[in-house]
Amino acid sequence: MYYSYEEIEKVKRLMPYLLKNEQNTRAKRIADISEEYIFYAKGINVNHILFMNKAEYCEYEKLYFPIENIYSEIFDNTTEFYYSKEDLDLIKFIRYINNTEIVKLSNSLSKEINNDYFNYCIYLSDKYIPNIKINIGEKIESILDLKKTLDLVYSNSLEDLKDPKLVDSLKERYDVSLRELKAEITKYICLWIHAYRYLKARQLMMLENPNIITFSHRYYGWSKPRQNVDQNLSIEFKTNFGYGNSSYFYLLLIYKGIQIFPFIEWVNYKYASVSNMEKYTEKYQRITKKTNKRTNKQYNVTEIYQSYWENAFNDLITACNISKKSEKFFVDTYIIKALDHLVEELEKVFELTDIEANNRYRDFNYNFTIRDLPNNYIKKIKLMHVKGSIITGALDLIGHISKLQVFIDTKIYISKIIDLNNRILPMLVETIPLHQKQLVDYDSVINSFYKELAYIWNDKGLKNYKFQKDISEEEREYFEELNEKHISISDKKNEAEQEQKHIKNLLKSIERYIINIDKYLLNKNS
């Protein structure tokens, strides 16, 4: 077959984009999905679905609906082909899949479901996750097109190569590409089976259990169906799976029309904020630190796993059974104990030491390494920053506490929070001059570094050697010594300037805490 120059060049340009999504280059490939989520996947939403039924005369309980091991033979054969190291015969494997019933089934299913892809999230907290196409025939066709492209580039490139080493290299790259196509199609088939198994199990579960209140799932994106457990309690599993750090997994309890607020989290959780806490009663996720390889800076990463459904259902069952037992028991467990714990912990925060504050709370522990300052108020400044953040931030909780007046007398809790803010206000005000003195001290240290740098550059003559190539060995040693000193002092100067910025940021926060207290007290008294 004859191919024009333009056709060959076009195919060569396509070569690097095998298995890539040209519309979204950040989208992951199915070939890159970890084997543990495919061949070794197990547990919730793989082997069983968790669910809860309405309970009339008995306690609520966590139930398990089995996910049938449909198409296990195809799954096993596909897995075997994936792990066979030498077998790269994609055509043989595709012929095998085409002779099974799942291709015809997938074609029918794609017409029934108003979507091209399964609503099946592989990683709950990752982003740019590949979708699982419902129509297997269309996926196979795309794989065959890619293989045709690969073969065309390989055969045409092979004709141009004379060096045996280059021929071997080209063959190696060709085999790597074949393995990627093999991984793509085999992992896709097994993921398709997982998604189909879950779909059929969910449909059968709903058919056999018409009184289901809620169940575990792995749906993409936003989902928050509200369900009435009884005349008093409503619940929501609010999820947003598959969106990286925007992913979330919440349980929301609404008792007699009032949301149960997670007051305890304000003092127990490092990354709590009132605006986020308004969205849930319980949260199921983990925040971990990762380091950017390029910038070496750390950033927070949200992690959510299928196993967290177990914790979520345990909390749900407990809340439902407590609600069923009595209003007094529910109010005592989810309101009174939570508020008692909140004010107790706020009192402890007020008495915190510097070490306790920095180890236990928040990410406000800026690093300060410049120790030779005339006045070193940094520990006190950081400590008041942590205390101020937590205690003044509790003012934002008062609105939520006030709503609970229908259940209990909330005045005592509100009074304690206001009292703590009145007590901490003068302490915050006292740190303002400490900030200002510390900024002046940093100015002095930074200026001294600038003077040292200028002295080395001008008076010591570093500038005379910096751009010279023809200098003696003695002069070179002198230059290297000066240059090392210059770099060391420059690093210290940059470090001091960065720390001065931290002090300014801390000062802004302290000033904001003072304003928040003054504003609240002014509004309260007006």
Task: Give your account of this protein's structure.
The chain has helices at 5-14, 72-83, 90-98, 102-112, 136-160, 164-208, 263-268, 274-277, 308-325, 327-350, 354-360, 378-393, 398-402, 411-459, 462-466, 473-525; strands spanning 48-53, 63-66, 212-215, 221-223, 226-228, 233-241, 248-255, 258-259, 282-283, 286-291, 298-303. It is an alpha+beta fold and 526 residues long. Strands 4, 5, 6, 7, 8 and 9 form a six-stranded antiparallel sheet that branches. Strands 2-1-3 form a three-stranded antiparallel sheet. Helix 2 packs antiparallel against helix 6 and helix 5 (136-160) runs antiparallel to helix 6. The longest helix has 53 residues, at 473-525.
Characterize the main sheet: 6 strands, antiparallel
User: How would the global form be characterised?
Assistant: flat
| Helix proportion | 55-70%
Can you count the beta strands?
Answer: 11
Please report which band the strand proportion falls in: under 5%, 5-15%, 15-25%, 25-35%, 35-45% or over 45%: 5-15%
Q: What's the total helix number? A: 16
- Give the overall average pLDDT: 87
Radius of gyration: 32 Å
| Helix and strand element order | HEEHHHHHEEEEEEHHEEEHHHHHHHH
Terminal-residue CA separation: 89 Å
Sheet/helix structural class: alpha+beta
Unreliable stretches: 10-17
